[in-house]
Amino acid sequence: MAKSLGKKTVAEGIETKEQLSFLKKLGCEYGQGYLFSPPLPTDRFEEFFREFGKLWKK
To answer: How far apart are CA 34 and CA 37, in angstroms?
Structure first.
């Protein structure tokens, strides 16, 4: 539904590589969860996102 409305999707609570693979096949653009990282303080988030964002696009 999000795509038909021109919206991007964010999956929350991703914990396994299988969940990530499934969501990417569905076209989910963004995700968060312990698979990637535990909660981070703001000052560490930007650095983390720059590095990890490269992996999400693969």
So the answer is: 5
